[in-house]
Amino acid sequence: MTPFELMEPETLGEALALLDPDDVSVRPIAGGTALMLMMKAGVFRPTRLVSLRRLPSKHSGISSAANGDLVIGAMTPLSSVEHSPEVARAAPVIPRAMRRLSNIRVRNVATIGGNLAHGDPHMDLPPVLIALRGEVLAVGNKGERTIALEDLFTGYFETVLAKNEIIAACRVPAQGATRAAYLKVTTGSAEDWPALGVAVAFAVEESTIKSARIVVSAATERAIRLKTAEQALAGALSTRRRSPAPAMRPLPKRSVSPISGARPRTSASSFASMCRARCAKPCMMGRIPAMEPAADDDQHHPRRADRAFAAAARST
Ligand SMILES: Cc1cc2nc3c(=O)[nH]c(=O)nc-3n(C[C@H](O)[C@H](O)[C@H](O)COP(=O)(O)OP(=O)(O)OC[C@H]3O[C@@H](n4cnc5c(N)ncnc54)[C@H](O)[C@@H]3O)c2cc1C
Q1: Topology of 5-51 in CATH?
Q2: The domain 60-172: what is its CATH number?
Q3: Which of 40, 190, 267, 277 would you label with 8, given CA atoms 20 to 30 Å apart?
Q4: Shortest-distance Cα residue to atom 49 of ligand 1
């Protein structure tokens, strides 16, 4: 391994000063679970890593704002998010999704800031947090800005973050009456990386969906909203007995595209049909606020229709 500098600043300001906007070999490191894999594989050779571990504890805490919104410090380990009573109260879909996010060893070390900054589409949290209208607070030398999570990801492992910008916190509106669910299809065990992730969030009034957010990820270059399906669901009934899923019309073929290079090639229209089909179950789960996923809700043995998703996951 090529030698590199490891800096351990104690304030956010010091950390920012150590980053270089023009040098891609200088990066912040949080839990290191993603960066170490890239370094071991030789796809990332740092000259300097700026560790965020010694930042003040406010960057690794979880609190509820006066309006109930969650504020999660970027350095908060995923396992703390998973077990936080505040998170369970404000957004129960998050701990439910996290139980099957890799294993406890990874969740103990990986941080929410690293999870979001990495820009990897094969992640469970981004679709869930986009569905919940989450946002990040990014801090740079020119000040701070708030970025809606749906605008954070621009492509495959790409985000709008500058090289010398650090995510300081993630804000998630409390679910309140919004019903939300997340489901992932994997090619291995239920805790494996998603080959497809689908998150839904419905704002429901008297069993009618007022607005819907549906986000797919993993088989796509970045987590994206299915806006056509969302519009079709507005006004649909969502009751204990009736899933709103049938209200979704077939998705236009250009509304969602698989990761380029996926083998076997999947036509845009069959990919759109698969996405629509895969939305049905989380839509059903989204009917009842506190519904726990059943044991088979994560479909880790892909059926025929899922082969393209599985192929997309293997090819990347
Ligand atoms: C074996 C294994 C299995 C996994 N399975 C899953 C899975 O099933 N589902 C899933 O969702 N994920 C999975 N992951 C991915 C895991 O969730 C990520 O590796 C982790 O969330 C990254 O967080 P980190 O703190 O370790 O980031 P790091 O590795 O420290 O950093 C990742 C990237 O983010 C940047 N960065 C870190 N923190 C910040 C910040 N605050 N501001 C700006 N940039 C920052 C770094 O410079 C780097 O580019 C798995 C990982 C492993 C190793």
Answers
A1: 3.30.43
A2: 3.30.465.10
A3: 40
A4: 118
